[in-house]
Amino acid sequence: MDARNIVITGASSGIGAALALRLTADGHRVTLAARRQAELTAVAKRAGSNAVAVVTDVTRRSDVERLCVRAVEAFGSIDVWINNAGRGLTRSVMELEDEELDDMMAVNLKSALYGMQAVVPHFILRGRGHVINVSSMLSRVPAATYRSAYNAAKAALNALTANLRVDLAVQHPGIQVSLVIPGLVTTGFQQHARRGSPPLPPAVAREAQTPEEVAERIADLIEHPVAEIYTNPQHHAQVLRYFQNVGAFEREGGARRRESV
């Protein structure tokens, strides 16, 4: 396994922190980005000498461009860029306010766009590279409608990822573009979501993966690039069932809600 130079956003906790530890344990070099300096520095310290921390607000294009420069300065080049930063919001479609929707798009979509636009020119010059965008199962199936704006932003991220993959495939086949689709993960995402989070049904909570399990799947994706992965193998079949009969999912969901009242 060749050591790679990898950038990870949203690296101060959760999936990003677990990924930093997993990848440095394999000998990779990582540039870690997040807003929270103390937490980010702590993760970099745990990851060891092959990790550098760059405090970054990924909703600012200039910060993301600076992150790209700092990563190249630290390790000479970038092989993999992982857009992992994200944040949730508890609001139904009819409750959404302009500022809330704008915030979800900035954190979950535009941050990844800035990352792609910063690093892909570097990859083109080198003739190779790998962009990995972390999405959500909720971008495919409306299983938690109170996350409406988050779900919409991640669905848009799916589209940008696929379009970039197609754009690069012919002229730059050495550049891989992958989408990672986790389901529920035992991180602080629920607690840190804007406007809080409702309690999870026990059956849903039991399906949750750990950040380390998701990091393991992403580490394998780096070694064996494919277009997209579901970190929970069961979810691919669930998504196929949804798209085979979209209306049935909504009817079943409505029935469950009526039974719970």
Describe the secondary-structure layout.
Blueprint: E1 5-9, H1 14-25, E2 29-34, H2 37-47, E3 51-55, H3 61-75, E4 80-83, H4 98-126, E5 129-134, H5 148-171, E6 175-181, H6 189-192, H7 202-206, H8 211-223, E7 228-230, H9 234-244, H10 246-260
Parallel strand pairs: 1-2, 1-4, 2-3, 4-5, 5-6, 6-7
Helix pairs in contact: 1-2, 1-8, 3-4, 4-5, 9-10
Unreliable runs, pLDDT <50, ≥5 residues?
A: 254-261
Structural class given helices, strands, pairing? alpha/beta
- Strand order, biggest sheet? 3-2-1-4-5-6-7
CATH class annotation: Alpha Beta
CATH topology: Rossmann fold
The percent range for strand residues is 5-15%
Number of helices: 10
User: Count of DSSP E strands?
Assistant: 7
Q: Helix-strand pattern, N to C?
A: EHEHEHEHEHEHHHEHH
What is the CATH architecture term? 3-Layer(aba) Sandwich
Question: What distinguishing features does this structure have?
Answer:
alpha/beta, seven-stranded parallel sheet, 7 strands
Descriptive overview:
With 261 residues, this protein is an alpha/beta fold. The chain has one domain (5-260): Rossmann fold (3-Layer(aba) Sandwich), CATH 3.40.50. 53% of the residues lie in helices and 14% in strands. The protein is built from ten helices and seven strands. It has a seven-stranded parallel β-sheet, with helices on both faces. α1 runs parallel beside α2 (37-47). The radius of gyration is 18 Å and the shape is globular. It starts with a strand and ends with a helix.
